[in-house]
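We read letters as residues; the integers encode the fold. Take this protein.
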Amino acid sequence: MKEYISVLIPVYNEEEKIEKTISAIKDIELIDKICVIDDGSKDNTYEIISIIDNIEVIKISKNRGKGNAMQVGLNAVISYSDIIVFLDGDLGESSEEVIKLIKPIINSEAHVSIAKFPKAKKKGGIGLVKKLAKYGVYLHTGVLLDTVISGQRAFRKEVLENIYFPTDYGIEVGTTIDILKKGYKVIEVDVLMHHNETGRNLRGFIHRGRQFIQIFKTLIRKTIS
């Protein structure tokens, strides 16, 4: 019996790529549902997604964070879905690589699959955020993963029924720790996905600074909880 597969795409101000992201996965036969959750976008994202056929669109009136948008989407599909996939809205045509995340879950190779992106084409930061996330998860679980902060993930339903989504940049780290501590198997999958890269400019360093602080706070909470 075929398992029901839903893809959830939380978005905030993704007018440039969201249509291409959706178009690239609409004809994948394994996918039964595409649900896009607009997290209070201030650009034309909602206008674009609201006229695309054969997808579900959920609009959140005010931006409340990616974790909240993920939870809203999850609440809408979890009752009838067996496998649930999360994708970012800025993947463009590379979203078609999602099939590589789905197949290991269908084949019972793991409970969770995480996309491992190719090496970035342009220089970003100096790797502090990724190292903090990677070794923070290792210290909590004894499992060494390279792609802890990747948001492109496929889950068995049972996993998502047993974890909580924080709303800040610590979401991937926090949920990864919870998943591993509960004994679920996680695998990393090489994909040819790409999305908007943060450069070495003031905006980029501010973004990575916020990530670092929120991931650090997440790790502290996990230590004392």
